[in-house]
Write a structure and sequence with these properties.
heterodimer; A: 288 residues; alpha/beta; TIM Barrel; eight-stranded parallel beta barrel; 46% helix; B: 712 residues; seven-stranded mixed beta sheet; 22 helices; 21% strand
C-alpha cells in the first residue's frame, strides 16, 4: 500500500504559500500522492485548479482528486481540464469522481440533483471516449487518458464501477468498513471479467499534536461535515490523532487490500505534514 | 427535564429505568394501557452478549434478571423422526412476566412514576413534556398518529403463527418440523422458567386453511396443536393466553423522531421472531437513548445520536431476520435434505453463523456434519466437505474446489491472436492445477470467430486451436490431479468489443464483425446493432456448437459447459428483455428456451456419455422485467431432463442496467434455490476466498462445487 497526503486546500485557512510549500515538501517524500477534495458551497479551493498550480511546483508525486463532484461539471470541459492536467503534469493525474452528498452544491451549480447518478455514469463513458478520440483535448500521456476512480457507491453501484471505471475510492471509516466495500468492488470486477484488480483508494483525516491541536482538528471536522448532522460527531471522533492510531489504521487498510491511502489534514499547518512524514518514516514507510 | 414514556413493556420500562439512573433529576412518567399484572406472551430470550450490555447499563436489574434465568446451550432440531443436537449456543430465557415485574420494581426504586390502566390515545395532546418516548409496541398509537412524519412501512409475513406455552421442561432450544395430512408445521420452543416453555407454532397459509385453523376457536386451535405435537410433549398440556394465529409484521420506519417525540423498540422496528431479538433490540435501544441523552445537552443532537447509533444495528438485524424469515417461509424447499444437512442449513440460514463457528461451538456436531458429507458414518474422522471427492457421470474430481482461468482471476494473459491460448494461459492453467484444485474452468471460449467477445477471445473452431488446446489438456492431466472443463460461448450482441482492460462492452472502433441476437436490439447506446437471427443463422450456430463439441472431445476435455448467462447469445434468448421474437423462439418461457435447449440436446448427443455436461445459467437478470429466479428454476428442471448434469449459477449483465448485489458470496442464495428447487447439482462462485465459506456452502447443500477467487 502506498500512502499519500491530502492538500489543506479543502478546509478554511490555507493560502498560496502553504499550499505550494505543502506540495513541494510532499514531493520530496515519503508520500506517493497529493489528494484534493471537492466542495462547492464552502470556503475551499477548486480541486482541479489547485492540482494544476501544484503540478508546476512538483515533479514526481501523483495528483489525485478524492473526489471531484462529477455531475456538477460539463463533460467536455471536464475532459479538457483533466487531459490538460494529465499532459502538463507528465501523466500524474488520477481522477476520482463521485456524485457528492450536498444538495446545496447542485443548487449553486444549477444542476438537477435527482439525476446525478445517471449523469455520473454517462460522464464516465463520455470522458473516456473524448480522451481516446482526442478531438477536444491535447494527447494524454496514455491513449486511454487518466485513471478514473468512483467514490461514494450505493450497494448497487459497484456494477457501474466495474463496468466503466478503473477503481474505487472509499469515503472513510474504520478498516472493516473499507474491507467490506473492497470485497464488493473485487466481486464486481471479477464478475465483469476485468483483468487484474480494481484500484482501491481510501482517505482519512489526521491531526497530530497536543490536546488543543487535536480539539481544533475535531472542530474543523464537525464544521466540515455539519451537513451530516450528528454523523459529523462520529467523523470527528475517528480523526487519527496519535502515531499509534495511524500505525494501526495503515495496517488495517493494508491488510484489507488498499492500494493507496491518502491522509488529509484537519489543520492547515505545514507542521502537520512534517509530523505525518516523521510518523511514516518511523513506521519504515520512507520509500516512495 | 420532564419525560413521558408511552408503553410499559420491556422497552418503556427499561428506558425509564436507565434514563432515570443516569440522570436522577429527570421527571419520568410511564403510561401503560394494561393493568400492572397483565401480560401477553410467554418467555423472551437473550444472548450472552445482550446480557453483558444489561450488566453495564444497570447492575441491579441485571442481577435480578440473572437469578431468574433459564440458561441453556444446545439447539435441538427434530426432523424426519430424528433429533439432531448442536451445542455451544449460549442462550437464556426468562418469563416475560417476571422480566416486567423486575423492571417495574426497579423503576419504582429509582423514582420513575408508573401509570397503569392509562392509554394515551391522543399523543398530540400530551403537553408539558420535553421528551415523549413512544415505546408502545408494533401498533404504536404515537407512530400511527404521526404516520406522515415517521413514514412507517409494514410488510406482512406469508406464514401464520401462534404463541403458546406448555407445562413442559426443555433442555434445549427446540425446532420441530412436523408434517401431517394438512401440511408442514414448524415449532420454535424454548424454556423460560423452571417449569414452563414457550411453543411458537408456525405454518404457511395453505396448511393453516387445510387444517381449518382459519375458522378454529381458541380452544380448537389449542386442541389441534396438542394433537400435532403429542410426540414431543410427553403428556404435557399446551396453554393459551388469549393466543391467536397472526402473520408477522416487519416494520421499518423512515424517521424515528418528530418534534419532541422519539420511537423506541417495536414502535420503530421489528425483526422476525425466529432470530429472537425483539425484546433484546428494544432494551438496547433504551440503553443507547439513555447514553445519548446523557452525552448531549441539546435534545435534537441527542435524538440524532441515538438514531445514528441504533439504525445501522437494527438494519443488520432486520437483514438477518429477513433471511431467517424467508428460510421459514420456504422450508418446504429443504425437505429433500437429509437430517444432518437440513440441520446445518437451518443453523447457518441467516449468514451470521458459519461452518467454522459451529465446529468451534460444538466439535461433535462439526464431525457429525463431516461424516455425513463424506458418507462414511462409521469413520472416526473424515476430511471437511471441501476435500471430499465429487462424482458426476464418469468424472471424479479430487475435491470441491474449482478455479476459473478467465481473466477474472486477476491474470492478464498475453494476447491470444486467432483464438489460440498463449503460453501464459497454459502456464497459469498448470500452475493452478498443481495448487490442489479439483476442476479448472477455461472461461468463455468462442465457438466461431463471429462468436468472440473481443478480438483476443479464446476459441475452439479450427485445427490449430484444437492442437494447442489438446496439448494444454494433456499437460494438465500429466502434471496434476485436476480435471478441466471447456466453457463454450457465443457472445451474441456482446461481441466485437474491445479488451476488458479498457472497460466492459466498449465496441471496437475498427475491425469489428457483424453481431447476432434473438432480436435486433443493441446492448447499449454505443453498441453495434445486432441482426435478428433467421432460421439459417440458428442452424449455423447450432452446427458451430456441435463442431466445437467434437473438438472438445478430441482435445480430451473432462467436462463441457455451455454459456447461457451474462447476456451472451443463448442467455439473450432466455431473457424477455432481449428476446422479443414473435416466432416459436420468443414469447413464452418454453419458446425462449427452445433454441438454447436445441443446442444443449445437439451437444449432449455427441458429447461422450461418461462425461458430464454443464450449463452456466442466468439465475436472475437483476433488472426490472428480466428473467426471474423462478423461471431459472424451471429452465434448470428442463435442462436436467435433457441431459444437463450440473448448473453453474450466474446473474446479471443481461443489459448494462443489470446491477447485481455484489459482495462476498453474492451468488450463494441463487445457487441454493436452483439446487434445492430444481434438484440439480450446482457450481457456484461469487467471490469466495476462504475454505470456511466453501465448507458452509457445501455442508448446507447450497452448491456442490465452489469456484474460488484468489484474494490477491
Amino acid at each position: 500500500m502506498r500512502v499519500g497526503v491530502g492538500l489543506p486546500s479543502g478546509i478554511p485557512g490555507a493560502n498560496r504559500e502553504l499550499v505550494l510549500e505543502w506540495a513541494r515538501l510532499a514531493d520530496e517524500g515519503p508520500f506517493s500522492s497529493l489528494g484534493v477534495i471537492d466542495r462547492l458551497v464552502y470556503e475551499s479551493y477548486d480541486p482541479l485548479m489547485t492540482l494544476a498550480v501544484v503540478a508546476g511546483a512538483t515533479s514526481r508525486i501523483t495528483l489525485a482528486t478524492i473526489i471531484v463532484t462529477g455531475p456538477l461539471h460539463n463533460n467536455a470541459l471536464l475532459a479538457k481540464s483533466a487531459a490538460t492536467l494529465d499532459a502538463l503534469s507528465g501523466g500524474r493525474l488520477v481522477l476520482g469522481l463521485a456524485i457528492g452528498a450536498r444538495k446545496e452544491d447542485y443548487e449553486a451549480a444549477g444542476v438537477d440533483y435527482h439525476d446525478r447518478g445517471r449523469r455520473l455514469t454517462e460522464q464516465l463513458v463520455t470522458l473516456r471516449s473524448l480522451w481516446e478520440e482526442g478531438s477536444i483535448s491535447p494527447p494524454t500521456t496514455t491513449s486511454r487518458g487518466p485513471n478514473l476512480l468512483i467514490g461514494g457507491l450505493s450497494d448497487r453501484g459497484y456494477a457501474r464501477m466495474a463496468r466503466y471505471a478503473d477503481g474505487y475510492v472509499h469515503g472513510g471509516g474504520p478498516p472493516r468498513s473499507f474491507a467490506r466495500a473492497a470485497d464488493k468492488a473485487r466481486a464486481a470486477w471479477r464478475d465483469m471479467g476485468r483483468p487484474g484488480h480494481p484500484r482501491l483508494w481510501a482517505q482519512a483525516y489526521f491531526a497530530l499534536g497536543d490536546d488543543a491541536t487535536i480539539e481544533t482538528g475535531r472542530r474543523v471536522m464537525r464544521d466540515y461535515y455539519a451537513f451530516l448532522g450528528a454523523f459529523a460527531g462520529r467523523i470527528a471522533s475517528e480523526l487519527l490523532v496519535t502515531p499509534q492510531a495511524i500505525a494501526q489504521f495503515l495496517r488495517g487498510y493494508e491488510e484489507a487490500g488498499c492500494d493507496e491511502l491518502v491522509l488529509f489534514p484537519a489543520i492547515p499547518h505545514i507542521g502537520q505534514m512534517q509530523q505525518l512524514a516523521d510518523v511514516l518514516i518511523g513506521l519504515g514507510r520512507s520509500g516512495l | 427535564m420532564r419525560l413521558a414514556i408511552l408503553g410499559g413493556g420491556p422497552a418503556g420500562l427499561y428506558s425509564g429505568l436507565v434514563i432515570k439512573k443516569a440522570q436522577p433529576t429527570h421527571d419520568i412518567t410511564i403510561f401503560e394501557r394494561n393493568p400492572a399484572d397483565v401480560t401477553y406472551g410467554w418467555g423472551v430470550v437473550f444472548s450472552d452478549r445482550t446480557l453483558a450490555s444489561f450488566q453495564r447499563a444497570d447492575y441491579s436489574s441485571y442481577e435480578r434478571i440473572a437469578e431468574r434465568f433459564v440458561i441453556w446451550d444446545a439447539i435441538d432440531i427434530c426432523y424426519r423422526g430424528e433429533k439432531i443436537r448442536c451445542g455451544g449456543h449460549i442462550i437464556s430465557g426468562i418469563s416475560r412476566k417476571t422480566l416486567l415485574n423486575i423492571l417495574q420494581g426497579r423503576c419504582r426504586e429509582l423514582g420513575v412514576t408508573l401509570h397503569f390502566d392509562q392509554e394515551i390515545i391522543a399523543p398530540e395532546k400530551l403537553t408539558g413534556y420535553d421528551l415523549v418516548i413512544a415505546a408502545d409496541g408494533v401498533n404504536s398509537v404515537a407512530r400511527r398518529t404521526f404516520a406522515e412524519q415517521f413514514q412507517p412501512s409494514i410488510t406482512l409475513g406469508k406464514a401464520k403463527y401462534i404463541w403458546l406455552g406448555a407445562e413442559k421442561v426443555l433442555d434445549a432450544f427446540t425446532f420441530i418440523f412436523q408434517q401431517n395430512e394438512h401440511g408442514l408445521f414448524q415449532v420454535h420452543a424454548y424454556p423460560f422458567s423452571g417449569t414452563t416453555s414457550t411453543f411458537l407454532i408456525e405454518c404457511d397459509d395453505a396448511t393453516w386453511r387445510n387444517a381449518g385453523l382459519d375458522l378454529a376457536s381458541e380452544t380448537e386451535s389449542l386442541d389441534y396443536c396438542q394433537r400435532l405435537l403429542t410426540p414431543y410433549l410427553d403428556g404435557a398440556r399446551l396453554l393459551s393466553n388469549n393466543s391467536r394465529w397472526i402473520s408477522f409484521s416487519t416494520l421499518k420506519t423512515k424517521h424515528w423522531r418528530y418534534r419532541n417525540m422519539v420511537l423506541l423498540g417495536d414502535a420503530a422496528h421489528t425483526a422476525h421472531f425466529s432470530i429472537g431479538s425483539g425484546t433484546k433490540l428494544a432494551m438496547e435501544d433504551a440503553i443507547a437513548l439513555a447514553g445519548a441523552l446523557e452525552q448531549h445537552t441539546d435534545l435534537e443532537d441527542a435524538l440524532n445520536a441515538y438514531e445514528l447509533e441504533r439504525r445501522p444495528v437494527i438494519e443488520v438485524f432486520q437483514r438477518a431476520a429477513a433471511e431467517s424469515q424467508s428460510y421459514f417461509e420456504t422450508t418446504r424447499r429443504y425437505l429433500g435434505l437429509e437430517p444432518v444437512p437440513f440441520a446445518f442449513q437451518l443453523l447457518t440460514r441467516s449468514g451470521r453463523i458459519t461452518y467454522d463457528d459451529l465446529r468451534f461451538r460444538d466439535v461433535r456436531f462439526g464431525e457429525l456434519v463431516d461424516r455425513w458429507f463424506s458418507q462414511q458414518p462409521r469413520a472416526v474422522f473424515t476430511p471437511p466437505p471441501v476435500f471430499m471427492p465429487y462424482h458426476l457421470r464418469g468424472l471424479t474430481l479430487v475435491n470441491r474446489i474449482a478455479f476459473s482461468l478467465d481473466s477474472q482471476n486477476g491474470e492478464m494473459y498475453d494476447a491470444s491472436p486467432n483464438g489460440i491460448p498463449g503460453d501464459s494461459y497454459r502456464q497459469q492453467a498448470i500452475h493452478f492445477a498443481q495448487r490442489n484444485v479439483g476442476l479448472l474452468l477455461t472461461g468463455p471460449v468462442a465457438i466461431s470467430a463471429g462468436g468472440r467477445i473481443t478480438p483476443d477471445s479464446l476459441g475452439l473452431y479450427d485445427r490449430e486451436q484444437l492442437a494447442v488446446w489438446g496439448y494444454l489438456v494433456e499437460q494438465v492431466h500429466a502434471r496434476s490431479g485436476a480435471k478441466i472443463a471447456l466453457c463454450l460461448n457465443h457472445a451474441g450482441r456482446r461481441g466485437a468489443t474491445r479488451p476488458r482492460s479498457e472497460g466492459v462492452d466498449r465496441p471496437l472502433r475498427e475491425g469489428g464483425w457483424p453481431l447476432l441476437a434473438p432480436s435486433a436490439l443493441a446492448y447499449s447506446s454505443s453498441s453495434q446493432l445486432p441482426r435478428a437471427m433467421e432460421r439459417e443463422d440458428m442452424q449455423r450456430v447450432r452446427e458451430e456448437f456441435v463442431h466445437a463439441t467434437q473438438f472438445a472431445r478430441d482435445a480430451g476435455f473432462d467436462m463441457l459447459q455451455l454459456s447461457m448467462a451474462h447476456g451472451y447469445l443463448l442467455a439473450s434468448f432466455l431473457s424477455p428483455l432481449t428476446n422479443q421474437r414473435d416466432d416459436d423462439y420468443g414469447g413464452s418461457l418454453n419458446n425462449r428456451l427452445r433454441f438454447p435447449l436445441e443446442i444443449a440436446q445437439a451437444v449432449r448427443a455427441i458429447w461422450p456419455v461418461d462425461k458430464p455436461l454443464s450449463v452456466a445459467l442466468t439465475a436472475s437478470d437483476c433488472v426490472k422485467g428480466g428473467l426471474t429466479t423462478d423461471e431459472a428454476v424451471e429452465i434448470a428442471r428442463i435442462l436436467k431432463d435433457d441431459g444437463c448434469d450440473i448448473i453453474q449459477v450466474q446473474i446479471g449483465q443481461t443489459t448494462p442496467e443489470s446491477e447485481p448485489p455484489y459482495g462476498r458470496g453474492f451468488l450463494t442464495s441463487y445457487s441454493e434455490q436452483l439446487r434445492n428447487e430444481a434438484g440439480i447439482p450446482t457450481i457456484v462462485g461469487g467471490y469466495l476466498t476462504t475454505s470456511n465459506e466453501i465448507n458452509t456452502i457445501l455442508a448446507a447443500g447450497r452448491a456442490d462445487i465452489c469456484i474460488v477467487d484468489s484474494q490477491s
